[in-house]
Amino acid sequence: MANEHWKEAAGQDPASTDAADAESLAADWADISLGLRKDLGQQLHAQWIKPIQIGGFCRETGTLELYLPTDFSANWVQDRFHDRLSLAWKIARGEVRHVKIGVHPKRRQMAELQLASTTPGSDTAPRDLRVVPIRGTAGESAFNFAIGLDPSLTFAAFVTGEANILACNAAQRMAAPEPPQFAPLYLKAATGQGKTHLMHAIGHAFLQTNPRARIFYCSAERFMIEFVQALKSNQTLEFKSRLRSFDLLLVDDIQFIIGKASAQEELLYTIDALLAEGKRLVFAADRAPQALDGVEPRLLSRLSMGLVADMAEADIELRRSILESKLTRFAPLNVPDDVIDYLARTITRNVRELVGGLNKLIAYAQLTGQEVSLQLADEQLSDILSANRRRITIDEIQRTVCQFYRIDRTEMSSKRRARAVVRPRQVAMYLAKVLTPRSYPEIGRKFGGRDHSTVIHAVRLIEDLRVRDADMDGDVRSLLRQLES
């Protein structure tokens, strides 16, 4: 019974969608939504795609229901994006044959409940309301309301590494039951490095320990739109009351609030009001607070008064771990290790693009019945790979290897057979094959005119040593990081 209640709260039909299906559908929708955001742009995506909820899925008819908050938005999406949504779902999930877009029968009732819990006396529900269900205990409501949270973006789905461990730990601390040591939390990261994921994860984790909490996630752009609409409709008091009633406020892409004096002032007052009541705030941007031009000094001081947690560009180990974590969704599909290594080495600009490339490759393989291979990756991801690929030369590899092993550069072409020289030379040949498009004969010529069979032997030897010798594997990983940075 509790499970059916959870499904009804999520807008799903208990008879046709079980909990496992719900989680799988949510994961598929997260990937589809990211792709649509890239295709349509942030503004269109935020206004029309982001508010979509996953409804029930009927296996017999292959029909998936998608819900929007109002008839107007449902009709708009139906007219302009139905074909695109249908195609995306058929690619992501072959059993989906039809996509039905509408308004959930209980949607207005849910909106009224949310409205009553956030702005007493107001008669206008939030336009971007999005309900996230959680399990309740006996005698309590089996679901709660949170605005803007994506159910697939949790701490469990977030892969950590050296580049993001500080930000992840700070985010978990912000969501913990104990009062946060630093407030507000400011996440700084370039596009596609995971700051938005962490913000959603904070919201979900906070709900687990505070089932009755009110949570609001929005972009700075959305904040400004809501504020301007409140000004035009003379509802600023209702806007302020609703905003300051939240226990956790998450504002993404704060750099877009630059230069908006009235919105900056309102955000400043909101920060002061929430912090004074011991509530929690998280901001995210693609630059540090000090680098935000056009921000009022008082607001700048509030943004930087807590903890500014940097998220660096994901290194190759983290990129590989992220890809491997995503592969669990596609089991038992076989993706060779060399393909994972190739994608992790080549798609370096951001994690979102990396995951998108993997999804595109797997979708193509499944739809055409082909096996995933390096050749298929090169053919189908040529646009992504060419945009990311940085030209690494054999000269650069030789110079880096010589510095690493502290040998003279001339040893790369010399005839000396001492082990202290031969092994670095073999490592350089291996890296030349891995990191450049050069053939074995071309590589051999760059190493003193050696035969291609010598290069093949070196490549196979280093591959074998990386499996058997942890020190050698560590050396190669260090060299890869240096050359790809």
Structural commentary:
This protein is α/β, with parallel strands linked by helices and 485 residues long. The chain has 4 domains: 2-104, DnaA, N-terminal domain (GMP Synthetase, Chain A, domain 3), CATH 3.30.300; 110-311, P-loop containing nucleotide triphosphate hydrolases (Rossmann fold, 3-Layer(aba) Sandwich), CATH 3.40.50; 316-388, Orthogonal Bundle (Helicase, Ruva Protein, domain 3), CATH 1.10.8.60; 394-484, DnaA protein, C-terminal DNA-binding domain (Chromosomal Replication Initiator Protein Dnaa, Chain: A, Orthogonal Bundle). It is 54% helix and 9% strand. It has a 6-stranded parallel sheet with strand order 4-6-7-8-5-9, with helices on both faces. A 3-stranded mixed sheet has the order 1-2-3. The longest helix has 22 residues, at 19-40. The N and C termini lie far apart (53 Å).
- Fraction of residues in helix: 40-55%
Topology-level CATH name of the largest domain = Rossmann fold
Provide the number of structural domains.
4
Coarse shape: globular
Discrete helix count: 21
Give me the count of strands.
9
Main beta-sheet annotation: 6 strands, parallel
- Based on the coordinates given, report the CATH architecture of the largest domain: 3-Layer(aba) Sandwich
What is Rg? 26 Å
Indicate the structural class: alpha/beta
Give the low-pLDDT segments: 1-17, 108-144
